[in-house]
Amino acid sequence: PCRSFHGYTRLLTSQIISHYDSINQYKKELPKYFNFASDVLDEWSQLEKDGRKPANPAFWWVNEEGEEVKWSFEELGFLSRKAANVLSEACGLQRGDRVIAVLPRVPEWWLLNVACMRTGIVFVPGTSQLTAKDILYRLQASKAKCIITSDTLAPAVESVVPDSQFLKSKLIVGKGSRDGWLNLKELL
């Protein structure tokens, strides 16, 4: 029994509760600590290695020009571990530290997101439309120790760095180099 509301079918509250109860009856063991990168991504990678699952892309990105990046679960796991090492070692971040990523949705955005999950670093996403004033506000409010951005947005970040007392490292995603910035591609 579903109720139609403006042409859309809605579940009644009793149905939602009974569905929830049916899920709870399985009594699945829940892990004390759950980490998507190690508990899901690495598990799928191992299943593919063992031949128990067919190899499928874990990540598939295509831009407007038709360039594409396709990573298997194994590749995404490997690259995210390398990115996690960059964040932990080169940037000096630890579990609970915050990193702001002001990037367009390039493959590195997802890679860094998984790397942060892997290490317990808090990933704070920001749109590439942020102004210098917006970036400064986010740096101060979050107390971020690292910022990651593209070479085109780096000048806006540099203009507010003197007012960002918590910021310890700056990571650039791009081909070029910039004084005072670490380059993600080189470090990977």
Explain what the structure shows.
The chain is an alpha/beta fold. It is 42% helix and 22% strand. The protein has helices at residues 13-24, 36-49, 73-90, 107-119, 132-142, 154-160, 184-187; strands spanning 2-5, 8-11, 57-62, 68-72, 98-102, 122-126, 146-150, 169-173, 182-183. The model is unreliable at 1-5 (pLDDT under 50). One of its GO terms (biological process) is fatty acid biosynthetic process.
Total count of strands: 9
Which structural class matches the secondary elements?
A: alpha/beta
CATH architecture field: 3-Layer(aba) Sandwich
Radius of gyration: 21 Å
Q: Please trace the helix and strand order, writing H or E for each element.
A: EEHHEEHEHEHEHEEH
Overall number of structural domains: 1
CATH class term: Alpha Beta
What are the segments in which pLDDT stays under 50 over at least 5 consecutive residues? 1-5
Strand order of the largest sheet: 6-5-7-8-9
Please work out how many helical segments DSSP would assign. 7
The end-to-end distance, rounded to whole angstroms, is 54 Å
| Mean residue pLDDT | 87
Using the coordinates shown, work out and report the CATH topology: Rossmann fold
- Global shape: globular
- Percent of sequence in beta strands: 15-25%
**How can the largest sheet be summarized?**
5 strands, parallel
How helix-rich are the residues, as a percent range? 40-55%
EC number: 6.2.1.2
Family: Belongs to the ATP-dependent AMP-binding enzyme family.
Keywords: ATP-binding, Fatty acid metabolism, Ligase, Lipid metabolism, Nucleotide-binding
InterPro entries: AMP-dep_synth/lig_dom, ANL_N_sf, Mitochondrial_ACSM
